[in-house]
Amino acid sequence: MRILGIETSADESGVSIIDASGDFGRDFSFTTLGNAVASQIATHTKYGGIFPTMAVREHQKNLVPLLETVLNESGLFGAGTTPTSGIDAILTRESELLAQLVPFLEKCAQPNIDAIAVTHGPGLEPTLWVGINFAKALAHAWQLPLIPVNHMEGHILLSMMDVRRPSLAMLKSFKFPLLSLLISGGHTELVRSREWMQYEIIGQTRDDAVGEAFDKVARLLGLPYPGGPEISRLATEARAQVGLCHKVAKSDLGILLPRPMIDSDNYDFSFSGIKTAVRRLVEANQPLSEEMKKQIALEFENAAAEVLIAKTMRAIEEFGVETVLIGGGVSANTHIRTQLAQTIKDYGASTKPLIPPANLATDNALMIALAGYFRALKREFADPETIRANGNLKLAQN
Ligand code: KG4
Ligand code: ZN
Predict the structure, then answer these.
(1) Which of 23, 40, 240, 354 lies at a CB distance of 3.0 to 4.6 Å from 325, suitable for a disulfide?
(2) pTM above 0.90, yes or no
(3) 257 and 139: one domain?
(4) Do 352 and 237 lie in a common domain?
């Protein structure tokens, strides 16, 4: 089955096509036929975060060129014509997108695709709508079923896949119960799965998401958006200075940040306190030296990693977890990856955490096409008349 995936939940526009067959436990495999992402980082850097109105406009500009790229990449673009009647009524609010889509469809024959999967939440509702309406327009033009996808399920399923060989990717071997640590710009969640595609959120952040904290701390340090990679770069430099590349090097300026809720008797998180502590430190140490910035980055990364790992380890112990997985943009963080793997090893568990390839840790449409495939197997199609963006969409319990 060929699935076209569309992702617009935040500031990455993504389009992807996969060809998948089989099912969980029944020889599942897939080929990535095309995958393209347009990052809006340059646009949002000047605002220090995602600026929704700009993001909506950028998605509108990006989607048709991305579609063209993946259709070409996958060899599915054929010269011809797709009738465009009715599309203007679907894209009433997306005039820039409509202006590109009509001429594109007029030169493009119907591709050999079976269904269209689109993120309908969680995320920023105005940007989710752009992707949904684009998917609706294509589904209408090509008479294809529409599959609504939960963005977080996309992150989880992607981490479960062995995508080193895109020509034939498959599921990694793992056992349930599975624990997923989902860490991104919008989410910090611990999710327990007793079985395939069943999810129970056992803990989540009470205020800022960890990626948001990385971004806000970076901003306080005068670093560009997105802050995660920047903080990570400075922290790595600070560790290298003391020759402790992968170890927990302590800040040598005596900087100490809190580890909020690390000992609390639940799986929830809180990151706004660390950010506030960084703000105070920054205010008290003006002008901030380069060395001070590095040391704050190091201590912040250590604090975030320690809290995430402590809660994960507690859940592993309490729920007899057999497999641990990390997903979401912050799972690209090398320190968090290596420390989590080391802690699990020290604990004596036989499993290594399942991690996404670094280039697929942040938002992309490949994960949406994948989740869409498994939802299509369950015949969970959307009625184009009633599909809605849901910024707070939760993972389904079953
Ligand atoms: O999953 P994602 O692409 O988008 C959301 O769904 O939010 O995650 C984006 C977040 C940003 O906050 C970014 O700063 C963070 O992931 N991030 C990182 C790293 N790379 C991206 N955080 C820490 N270390 C990184 N290397
Ligand atoms: Zn994400």
Answers:
(1) 354
(2) yes
(3) no
(4) yes
